[in-house]
Design goal:
Layout: H1 5-24, E1 25-28, E2 31-34, H2 40-86, E3 90-95, E4 106-116, E5 129-131, E6 149-153, E7 169-175, E8 181-185, E9 195-204, E10 216-219, E11 235-239, E12 259-264
Keywords: Coiled coil, Membrane, Transmembrane, Transmembrane helix
Organism: Mytilus edulis
Protein name: Short-chain collagen C4
Amino acid sequence: MGLGKTDAYNVYVIIIVVNVLLFMSVNVNGESKRLLLNDPDVTATRLNYLESMMATLNATVKQLTTENQQQKQQIFQLETALQTQQNTGSTYIRWGRSTCPNNNKTEQVYSGFAGGGYYSESGSGAEYVCLPPNPDFSKRTGTNSGRMYGAEYDSNNLFASNSMDEDVPCALCRSVHSTSNIMIPGKNVCFSGWRMEYHGYLTSAAHDHAAQSSYICVDSAPEYIIGGVDDHQGKLLNNVVARCGSLKCPPYIDNYPLTCVVCSK
């Protein structure tokens, strides 16, 4: 950080005083002689020297003031950029895991339970939801029109061994250095310029279930909720396979389970 105007002025005064004292005494033929203060030549020389020093100091003060302003502007820009970065971010749900990816670019909002409508009820909601572990209730009674169930794995060989009927965890994650995220079906790596959050298998309800369903990406190394092995049905998670016909084959292959990846940018 440069000198302030007060510091520069103090330096200026000190230099003037020192130089006046030096001019008061000069060496002539090796002897110290005191000069007459009313000598016109000496006075002119002093004035010229002082004017030169003043010009130099004024230029220095101006330069330091400019540098100080530039540094203040740079600090302001850096603070603004930092604040903007802290206020950005995109969110996604990591299905099948209770934690977010372990890196310094992702923070966990909460860990919860996957849920949704009952697989055989035609009026059920299509979306899977990630329910928090600490719900807030405002009323004690309801009409029982809409229903929320927990989610279970409905496959024993795709997600993990012995996964059938296990309850599904989830985690809501925030990617702190990104502004958007996408789930790409049929891929397990991100496109260039995107950062992978996690990859896994594309999942939905079974095609012959009455309830509608959306597609989600379940982590390739899923976890289970402790104590959730009982077969209560609810919102079910099944693997999704490619079916040739209206879907172009190749590149897709009939009855092959589809992968997926969640990417941020």
